[in-house]
């Protein structure tokens, strides 16, 4: 009897001790991550070297190849809608389409997986502003990953946010800008990600980009979403649209076509 009482006492004491530790663990404070700011993911050096593109002839690549899906041929935005699925509200004029500030993104009605995309864009003569505030737009691949469009002609910015960067991830290999008023050509080859069941990448998305015939991104791995503040996020998704960004600047686009791969 005496021994049994001792055992009971020990086990009661142990129970109190475990409860106390458990309460202590719940109350223990650990350091929290520092709040992220936009500047934490902006890198300014080394600035990519400037490469002057070859001369363009005025009638180069003004129509799509025979097996392409034409997304915009200068006539209308029938292949596009806004972010709410309503009619796209950008301005079609002079065989080009121009961002209308405040109308929001436009996106293709059709969704895509792997593709080759051709898109031409131009910054208006007399553009003002600096860094990210000058001729800013963007091409979102599968609606998820922004390839930056920006006037980087005599305009420096953080290099992982300049023309042809995967925004806030990978800077381009060169600065191949034509000046405002001239047309820049993007040719984008994109491989969609494959996801595991748990939503992480089995194979991440990859992209190759040429601007005006000059290689800017060479089969680069995309790490996740292109966030203004914070780290890329891996978000499981399926086929997605081509999305063009309204960043408030009057950037124009023309001759947009895509070949599914
Ligand atoms: Mg942009």
Describe the structure.
- The protein is mainly β and 261 residues long.
- The strands form three sheets. Strands 1, 3, 4, 6, 9, 12, 13 and 15 form an eight-stranded antiparallel β-sheet that branches.
- The protein starts with a helix and ends with a strand.
- The model is unreliable at 4-8 (pLDDT under 50).
- Strand 7 and strand 8 form a beta hairpin.
- The chain has one helix at 2-27, and strands at 69-72, 80-82, 91-93, 96-98, 106-108, 115-122, 137-141, 145-149, 183-191, 194-195, 201-203, 206-211, 214-221, 243-244, 252-260.
- Bound molecules: magnesium ion.
CATH homologous superfamily grouping: Exo-inulinase, domain 1
Oligomer: single chain
User: Which class in CATH terms?
Assistant: Mainly Beta
Strand % is 25-35%
Looking at the structure, what is the overall shape?
Answer: globular
CATH architecture: Sandwich
What kind of sheet is the major sheet?
Answer: 8 strands, antiparallel
Instruction: Detail the poorly predicted runs.
Output: 4-8
Helix content: under 10%
Summarize this structure as a short list of keywords or feature phrases.
261 residues; globular; eight-stranded antiparallel β-sheet; Jelly Rolls; mainly beta; binds magnesium ion; 15 strands
